[in-house]
Amino acid sequence: MILLKGTKRKNQQVDAIKQWWKDNGNTLVIGAVVGLAGLWGWRFYNDSVIEGQEQASQAYTTMLAKFEAQGEDADTVAVESFIAENDSSNYAVLASLLLAKEAVAKGDFALAKTQLIQVQSQNSYEPLKPIINLRLARVEMELGQLDEALATLENVTEEGFYAKAEQVKGSIYLQKNDLDVARTAFQTAIEASDGRVDPILQLQFDDLAINVENEAIDPVLSN
């Protein structure tokens, strides 16, 4: 009697498992297939991204080597082509920075500003943001866009770039002939340099201090 009850219970358990599999088996199989497909898809996506980055890296290295080999006769056609072909890559940001640097070297500050504004919109790498803003502020200063340059410098909030930002502010206020504010900016930059003062910064501050002192001694001769 006990044996029959045990056999009946086992049969009931088997029937229950069969019924559960009937009700849920298809869902389980589909879920497993979807999960595996997602895993394979994610791996394929990662492999594609890595491959794309490697190709962009190689293309950037090749472009840069050819550009530098041209020396003083270098043109920017290859750089511009690289940017157009790799606009979704971080290497396009580096190429745009290179193009802006070349524009500055040639005195084409309008082109440099165009490139740097484009880089601002493309770049998502945080450590590059203060560098881009500092360069843009310097270019705007060269263009005589002094208020715009000061506004750009407000975006430089990283501690490691504070001294440089204040130094550029000092140069801008010098152009605005606001000597007291310029001197304060240079002094702030020196204090933020933590003992590693840029010699040019020190020279700017010293020259300004002499000029201010001369004006205080003989305001007639300073005009």
Descriptive notes:
This protein has 223 residues and is mainly α. 79% of the residues lie in helices and 0% in strands. It is built from nine helices and no strands. The radius of gyration is 32 Å and the shape is elongated. The chain starts with a helix and ends in a 6-residue tail after the last helix. The model is unreliable at 2-6, 28-51 and 219-223 (pLDDT under 50).
Write the layout of secondary structure elements.
Blueprint: H1 2-69, H2 77-85, H3 90-105, H4 109-122, H5 129-142, H6 146-153, H7 162-175, H8 179-192, H9 199-217
Helix pairs in contact: 2-3, 3-4, 4-5, 5-6, 5-7, 6-7, 7-8, 8-9
Strand percent estimate: under 5%
Computed CA radius of gyration, to the nearest angstrom? 32 Å
Average pLDDT, to the nearest integer?
76
Q: Which consecutive residue ranges, at least 5 long each, have pLDDT under 50?
A: 2-6, 28-51, 219-223
- What proportion of the residues is helical, as a percent range? over 70%
Tally of contiguous helical segments: 9
The main pleated sheet reads as: none
Describe the global form: elongated
What is the CA-CA span between the terminal residues? 122 Å
Find the count of extended strands (DSSP E, 2+ residues).
0
Q: Element order, helices and strands?
A: HHHHHHHHH
Which class of secondary structure composition applies to the elements? Answer: mainly alpha
Which keywords apply here?
mainly alpha, about 220 residues
